[in-house]
Amino acid sequence: MALTKDTRLPLNDGNTIPILGLGTYASPDVPKSTGEEATKVAIELGYRHIDCAYIYGNEVQIGSAIRAKIADGTVKREDIFYTGKLWPTFFSPDLVRKGLEKSLSDVGLEYLDLFIMHWPFSLKHEGAEKPANSDKPFAYDDVDFCSTWEALEACKDAGLVKSIGVSNFNRRQLERLLNKQGLKYKPVCNQVECHIYLGQSKLQAYCKSKDIILVAYSVLGSHRDKDWVDLSLPVLLEDPILGEVAAKYNRTPAEVAMRFVLQKGIVVLAKSFSTARLKQNLGVFDFELKPEDMKTLESLDKNLHYGPFKEMKQHPEYPFDDEY
């Protein structure tokens, strides 16, 4: 199918998700106002899918940008697809709705289009919220994500969110959720790291067999935030073979890296706060990679996680020890 910036993929609950989204995570040294301005520009350029999260600490600003663009008539609320994420400190069933209401209040919207479990494990409130805190480590909790899911289903029934999904789940964890007794709604998506060095083909095939969409973050090989990423890893956009394919199409390596993931039928989150890059990213809809070039790029898969989130390895539900 020909892809455009307006292409939406059907979700298993009858809703649809725009195939290209704006990622809004920024490292702490980036002023929150930068994300706010970039979100306004993105909406003006035609982005309709905005991906954010409680832990990013900028839902107030991103929400303000969305509401400003609704107020000035650029978009209607129903044109925007907003994703929020439930942080593991809210996984206890009695806290799930509070976590969602916190995001609703910060963003200033009456409902979210998609709300996903950020990880497949829970954290206690008294530990660190973010991994960069060496004085105060994570305090793991043992809330079963299946009980968290039941509370999310209730939030969907209450009309606070249109669709519910997961993030960073492996096959085994998805299977456990799907086989849960009394499951009312399947997750519509699994948001995972995915790029030419981490193709996620097996996970995608499994998700497809269960009618679950894959949503890709770090499609350009991550923002190389030292708190999360091993800076000795190769820079994806400097890959010589990717460079050769990009030259063949007279495109940038970033455009080809994004197009590769889109052509696999995966939703792409493109993170940029630069107006020029936001415009350039829409160029992914102006060309199509030939099957042989898709194959060439597929051969670059190294099963490489830029974000292994090693701080979380102690948790029995750490997802990346499994093959997929």
TrEMBL record:
Species the sequence originates in: Aquarana catesbeiana
Active-site residue list: 56 (proton donor)
Pfam families referenced in this protein's UniProt entry, alphabetically: Aldo_ket_red
Superkingdom, natural source: Eukaryota
Site-annotated residues for Lowers pKa of active site Tyr: 85
Family assignment from sequence similarity: Belongs to the aldo/keto reductase family.
UniProt cross-references to InterPro entries, sorted A to Z: AKR (IPR020471), AKR1C (IPR044482), Aldo/ket_reductase_CS (IPR018170), NAD(P)_OxRdtase_dom_sf (IPR036812), NADP_OxRdtase_dom (IPR023210)
Residue ranges annotated for the NADP-dependent oxidoreductase domain, each copy included: 20-301
PROSITE patterns documented for this protein: ALDOKETO_REDUCTASE_1 (PS00798), ALDOKETO_REDUCTASE_2 (PS00062), ALDOKETO_REDUCTASE_3 (PS00063)
Binding-site positions, substrate: 118
GO MF annotations, alphabetized: oxidoreductase activity; structural constituent of eye lens
Protein name: Rho crystallin
Keywords: Acetylation, Eye lens protein
